[in-house]
Amino acid sequence: MNVVNMKQFNGSNNLKAFFDVETSEGITIKGFKIADGKNGLFVAAPSDQDKNDKKKYWDKVKMPKELKDTLTKMALDKFSNL
Description:
This protein has one helix spanning about 65-80; strands at about 1-10, 15-20, 30-35, 40-45, 45-50, 55-60. The protein is an alpha+beta fold. The protein has a four-stranded antiparallel beta sheet with strand order 1-2-3-4, covered by helices on one side. A two-stranded antiparallel ribbon has the order 5-6. It is globular and about 35 Å long.
């Protein structure tokens, strides 16, 4: 798994960067985000907004905690070197 196409976002909100993930099989998953929350930077999976409740979002990508932790470390390391 590799973090690819990271683009820093210089807006006024909590969004800091967008990036894609490429698997070892060559599949690219687009739309991951790095955001700044109450507890610091975190990685958010691609998501869709709930049609009935505009305050809810649903992740499009589900992964085990170990994989999410690995992805978070990889993405934040790459972000810190931008």
